[in-house]
Amino acid sequence: MMFENYKSGSYDEMFDDEGNVRDHWKQLVANLEELGLDQLETKRQEIDWRLEDNGVTYNVYNDPNGISRPWSLDPIPLLLEGNDWKRIEEGVKQRSTLLNLIFKDIYGEQRLLKEDIIPSEVIFAHSGFLREVHGLFNDIAYPMMILAVDLARGPDGKMWVVSDRTQAPSGLGYAVENRLTMNSAMQTLFQHLSIRRLHLFFDKFKTMLLGLSKSNSNDPLNVLLSPGPHNETYFEHSYLSSFLGLTLVQGQDLLAKGGALWLKSLKGLRRIDAVVRRVDESYCDPLELRADSRLGVSGLVQVLRKQGVSMANPLGAGILENLGLYPFLPRLAHYYLNEELILPQIATWWCGQPNEREYVLEHLSTLMIKTIDRSALYLGKNLSTGELDALRAKIEAEPYRYVGQEEVQFATAPSYTQGKILPRKVVIRSFAIHSDESYTVMPGALVRVESSADALVVSGQGGGSSKDLWILSTPDDSENSTSMTMTQKMDGMFQSMVQLPSTLPLSMTNVFKARGSSENSLENIPSLRAENLFWLGRYLMRSITNARMIRLTLKSLVNATRYDRHADERVQEVLCTTLTHLTMTYPGFLGRDEDEIPDPLIEIWSVMSDNARIGSLSQALGMLFNASTSTKNLLPIEGWRILDRLMREWNDFTHQKAPTQRAMISGIDKLLVHLMAYKGLIEESLFAEQGLVLYDIGAHLERSNLLISKARAMLTNVYEPFVEYEILETLLGSSESLNAYRAHYRASINLVHVSEFLVLNIKFPKSLISEINQLLKALPKLPKFKHEMYLSRYEEPLFEAFSLLRLERIEHLSFLDKDTVVRENLDNLLSLIADKLLIAADELSKTYFSHYDE
Q1: Which residue from 513, 516, 525, 851 is spatially nearest to 688, judged by alpha carbons?
Q2: Predicted local distance difference test score (pLDDT) of residue 242
Q3: Checking DSSP bridges between strand 68-70 and strand 57-59, what pairing results, if any?
């Protein structure tokens, strides 16, 4: 018996008070028992594998195990009876309608304040009230387009409202992924159950987004505005943007200009029709809201005033998450709708009212005390006498900022935990969207499960799991549900079913329609993503080249005194100074006038491991990781696994105290294996429309610059014969050119041949002239390349550099004046070309990433 030790101390979703399985759970329980615990564990492992394979993560801040935590899905769904759901659905619709009316009034006529239905302190003391957007929504019937309501079943068996999520509701993408994963992995549980499906909801969702368009275009540009890859739900942002046909952008991708909002793409500025906002409202406009924000768009509020773009959800929606509104919502339901609230809510007392404040202070030790903006939570029963006195003083000083709430024992549901089925508290996040002059509620939800039996809060940041919500259909739901016993892939979304209706809704194909080819073309790539691809190429080449140079320098130190002590020391000196020039970790091995040259091993370990040191290998890897994170949705999951393993192993390696020389070489060897694997995967999997040319341009530019740094440090000076040979061999090895050189010249290594091979040989793909030539071939592929006759601003310096190299002769470059120890012709040429590359990179950035000409 799977449930023989299952005991819940509160209302349970599956068992009634007498320990009997509720009627609507009986078939699912039978399916579970037929499956058995051993198979359930196997299925759980399969679910974990599927989620990991699909790259489903939830970012947890300040987690010592890393920011990206794999998403967790319980193999046992939460089951709701169809008629029970209908009441919940009507309650969520009613609440959404009510909140929309309240929102319009707060930012419009403010009759609720003028007629003293809501105290003004409730509104004006809340951080979600934005004075800057007052009057923006007078002409919009339904400014609240997307809402979420957190629900939990109370001890009376009714669903209670726990909280409202109106600002930027999260979880919708995870709910879809949970359903798709359950469809794939848990087909056995669907047998003989008729579950409501989700596709009609997303059909209406996409229709709603199309209706937001400010243009008459059949293919409007709608975007999802994300804070970026470090946000806790970034996976969902990427997932939903693809799922709903939205362009995923960050604030740096956008420009407010001429009363409109524009997307900075490679081709130029493209006007945006609508924004689905996932950035907290106060961060959306540093010009009028939070001045310290780097996530928003300067001038966005003014664009909204000019009605130059539509937004779901609107700025200012955070006011509706105000706990101070809760005591007044029953009265507001009568005021606006002449109805009772269908869904009860947790008993709440706003401390700005004398009687309510007195009640809260008298029962401080038994209530939950929260600020109205949810920024602080105090559980009275867990506070000491001194802490209660301090809290009492805070409430008395600013009573309007606090509410007291009854602590409710919410219902439990069966959860598979560590090989057992145990009762765990669950919270249901239900989603509603504006549709047809009302609201449509998704016939499913994201269910969050508490992390332990004694957890006080059910949340993803707290480490809880999730469930899929299955709603049993009723006869009225026949068009939106089927009995599910087999799985069939349909238009990108798995729908499990016994038989298909003879005619599918036409809109079903629309909601899963792929983006048009024009939208997925190179010219429409957002500028920030393009810039990250460019820097991905640069940081990857920088990391590989610097790692190779460090390895060869360490190897030289290991082989010290192997031949001639004096000559070996001179070789080490040259390699160490080259490493400083290459990484630009000055003063490094150059030292200062008053400083001694540092100990080689200590300095090299610092160049390897010091993440705070500008130019260090660790810092380059960190920048590579950031650029990769920002382009994560373009790369295959295998690439992310390689990079994740690389970073974990490198961080573990560099956190040890200074290792031996051989251990340092071994660590670099492992790093290089991962870097080369990552490089190969990127170059194999990225295709032109995704921006491969940007990666290539960045890679060619970086390799050119690094080759110049090494050549100036190693080729321009005069050395003794043995020293020269060792240095030239190291230079060829660090450039992956040693074998190619030997095959080409079939002679001993000498400076003239090496200089010619690495600088002037246009047939060798890793030479300086060849790298610049490949740049000149790649640049015309960019969309702003306007004229076949004239060179662009970023091409001119590259063409000049190429011409300088093509016109040179090795005899001139290797010429050495009497009484000099530096080949000035070679050094001057390399310095001039480095300047040209810098100008080209700057002009390229201004043209495609900053759009300074628009």
Answers
A1: 525
A2: 87
A3: antiparallel
DSSP 599: P
What is the C-alpha separation between 171 and 173, in angstroms, rounded?
6
Q: List the one residue out of 73, 79, 140, 77 whose CA is nearest residue 108.
A: 140
Q: pLDDT > 70: what percent of the chain?
A: 89
Both tokens assigned to 35: 């499956």
Question: Quick check: 449 and 424 in contact, CB under 8 A?
Answer: yes
Inter-residue long-range contacts of 377-385, CB under 8 Å, 24+ positions, other chains counted? 377/457, 379/407, 379/456, 381/407
**Nearest CA among 356, 336, 340 for reference residue 348:** 356
Cα–Cα separations (whole angstroms), residue 586 to 335, 348, 514, 597, 661 = 71, 62, 51, 12, 22
Residues comprising the chain, all counted: 854
Tokens 């943007």 identify what position? 241
**Over the chain, what is the mean pLDDT?**
88
- Side chain identity, residue 539: Y
Q: Maximum CA pair distance of the chain?
A: 104
Q: Say yes or no to pLDDT of 731 above 50.
A: yes
67 vs 813, more confident? 813
pLDDT digits (tens, 9 = 90+) for 489-540: 333 343 433 333 333 333 333 434 444 444 557 888 899 999 999 999 999 9
Whether the predicted pLDDT of 387 surpasses 80: yes
Q: What is the 3-state secondary structure (H, E, C) of 175-190?
A: HHHHHHHHHHHCHHHH
pLDDT at 635: 82
Are 607 and 577 a contacting pair, CB within 8 Å?
Answer: no
Note the pLDDT of residue 593.
59
Give the burial string for 454-477 (b: 16+ CB within 10 Å, else e): eeeebebeeebbbbbbbbbbeeeb
Helices (runs of H) and strands (runs of E) counted in the chain: 26, 25
Which residues, in sequence order, are bridge partners of residue 420?
417
Give CA–CA dist 604/585, Å, rounded.
10
- Phi/psi zone of residue 621: left (φ > 0), alpha (ψ -120 to 50 degrees), beta? alpha
Would you call 501 helix, strand, or coil by DSSP? coil
Percent above pLDDT 90 for the chain: 71
The yes-or-no verdict on residue 171 having pLDDT over 50 is yes
Q: Does residue 454 have a pLDDT over 70?
A: no
| Lowest-confidence segment of 110-114, 158-162, 494-498, 800-804 by average pLDDT | 494-498
Residues 510, 526: contact at Cβ < 8 Å? no
Residue 474, pLDDT score? 80
| Residue whose C-alpha is closest to residue 370's, from 339, 349, 397 | 349
Amino acid at 552: L
Which contiguous run of DSSP H or E holds residue 256?
A: strand 254-257
CA angle 659, 664, 670 (to 5 degrees): 130
pLDDT (average), residues 794-817: 95
* CA dihedral sign of residues 20, 21, 22, 27: negative
State residue 611's pLDDT score.
93
What is the C-alpha to C-alpha distance for residues 241 and 844, in angstroms, rounded to an integer? Answer: 28
pLDDT digits (tens, 9 = 90+) for 641-687: 899 899 999 999 999 887 899 999 999 999 999 999 999 999 999 88
Place of tokens 């499956």: 35
- Per-residue pLDDT, averaged over 435-444, amounts to 94
From the number of C-beta atoms within 10 Å of its C-beta (0-12, 13-18, 19+), residue 645 rates as middle
Give the separation between CA 603 and CA 580, rounded to whole angstroms. 10
Question: Measured between alpha carbons, how far is 708 from 731 in angstroms, rounded to an integer?
Answer: 11
- Number of Cβ within 10 Å of residue 672's Cβ equals 16
Report d(CA 133, CA 21) in Å as an integer: 52
| Residue 596: C-alpha distances to residues 241, 587, 618 (Å) | 56, 11, 25
The secondary structure of 331-385, three-state, reads HHHHHHHCCCCCCCECCEEECCCHHHHHHHHHCCCCEEEEECCCCCEEEHHHCCH
Kind and range of the H or E element at 566? helix 565-583
Whether the bond between 178 and the residue before it is cis, its omega within 30 degrees of 0, is: no
- The amino acid that residue 736 corresponds to is E
